Amino acid sequence: MSPFCTEDDLAIAETVGRFAQDVVAPRAQAIDAEERFAGEHLQALADIGLTGMNLPAEWGGAGVSPVALYLAVEALAGACASTTSMLTAHFLATDTILLGGSADQHRQWLPDAAAGRRLGAFALTEPRAGSNPADMRTKAERTADGGFRLSGVKHFISNAGHADFLTVFALTDPAAGARGISAFVVDRRTPGLTVGAPEPTMGLRGGHVFEVSFDNCLLPPDALLGPEGSGFRTAMKVLDNGRVEIAATCTGIAQAALTDSIAWVKQREVEGEPIARFQGLQWYLADMATDLDAARLLGLRAASLRANHQRFSQEAAIAKLFASEMAGRVTDKALQMHGGYGYARAMRLERLVRDARIMRIYEGSSEIQRNIIARNLLK
Ligand SMILES: CC(C)(COP(=O)(O)OP(=O)(O)OC[C@H]1O[C@@H](n2cnc3c(N)ncnc32)[C@H](O)[C@@H]1OP(=O)(O)O)[C@@H](O)C(=O)NCCC(=O)NCCSC(=O)CCS(=O)O
């Protein structure tokens, strides 16, 4: 499949692919249509090791390579992107604890999260600080007992209303800009923490997003992840991982659209012959496959660098930019090939088109990825 994958990675992908098609795919249309939270899959994801797939075995995780993680996320996304979004948001939360926290914090939070007993959410974005999180307003002030008083509002937070814990980023030194941001792990039952109703969205309708308010929430000293002021850097490292997982989600969605399109042109007939005989449609398929292959290779390259403990921020941004734009192109072409049937809600293609759209926006929009890529080029 790719120079980046080992036999073990491919075996994991096959297992997850079978699980995704047998267990997750059959419920995906209903989850979307009824806007039902994809959490109904949480136990099944945990049973197959997916809830801890980003974590080392030491903390209850699957201990697999980031390449296997990429392939697993892709396989799951081909079945249900809402379920995948719930899972990747959980990964953002547990990655924050893994990368920012101490061994004691790992022990306290990660095994339960890896086992799917506790669901996480990642609270970085604010109503007026999306692309530029350094401009956040949420504050955490020291209290006399060494803990913190947390106040502010976070927005578009996946899982929040269903989560057991959130990793939250807040200013501990408002004068210091990005260097004044700290990361915290917060129990969702903390008094003063309230979550709004799920925000209605165009796609990922089973991957609920929420506004979260912190009204003078009192946090214990051990809620702080890492040294004060290190939160922004932790968030950026977590997002490097997250962007590769979004790229994998995009290749999963696009692969599903391509698979459906191949089946469609073979089955749909015009004047007694399958439309697959039209060269125009064959060229559509060829372009879709080429675009998809390029995106997958970029994603696997980033995952492979991560596996080798090399810096991969640039490659993650390139993979996320290309894959999210590719998913838009491929799902749109697929819909065009299906004609009115692709536009009808009875087919999953309509869902794939809607689910693909957010990929160009969350975890850093395409414009932000271009900024990151250009900034690295001009260093
Ligand atoms: C575009 C940005 C990267 C620009 O950031 P800034 O210009 O504000 O900050 P910098 O000066 O670049 O960096 C400050 C500080 O952080 C360090 N840094 C930066 N990037 C990295 C990295 N990849 N790895 C490690 N460290 C990093 C940098 O070296 C500086 O350190 P020093 O202070 O010098 O020590 C940024 O604004 C950005 O990424 N914006 C997009 C935000 C985003 O993606 N938000 C998505 C939120 S989550 C979501 O969308 C969905 C979640 S869910 O499903 O609920």
Walk me through the structure:
- The chain is an alpha+beta fold and 379 residues long.
- The protein contains eleven helices and ten strands.
- The model has no long low-confidence stretch (mean pLDDT 97).
- The longest helix has 37 residues, at 231-267.
- The chain has three domains: 7-114, Butyryl-Coa Dehydrogenase, subunit A, domain 1; 120-232, Butyryl-CoA Dehydrogenase, subunit A, domain 2 (Beta Barrel); 239-377, Butyryl-CoA Dehydrogenase, subunit A, domain 3, CATH 1.20.140.10.
- 52% of the residues lie in helices and 14% in strands.
- The strands form three sheets. Strands 1-4-5-8 form a four-stranded mixed sheet. It has a four-stranded antiparallel sheet with strand order 2-3-7-6, covered by helices on one side. The chain has a two-stranded antiparallel sheet with strand order 9-10.
- Helix 3 (66-79) runs antiparallel to helix 7, helix 4 packs antiparallel against helix 5 and helix 8 packs antiparallel against helix 10.
- Strand 9 (269-270) and strand 10 (273-274) form a beta hairpin.
- It has helices at 7-33, 42-47, 66-79, 81-100, 103-114, 231-267, 279-307, 313-338, 340-343, 348-357, 366-377; strands at residues 120-123, 139-142, 148-158, 165-171, 181-187, 193-195, 209-219, 224-225, 269-270, 273-274.
- It binds ligand LLMBWK7S.
- Ligand LLMBWK7S is lined by residues 89, 92, 122, 124-125, 131-134, 157-158, 178-179, 232-233, 236-237, 239-240, 313, 362-364, 368, 371-372.
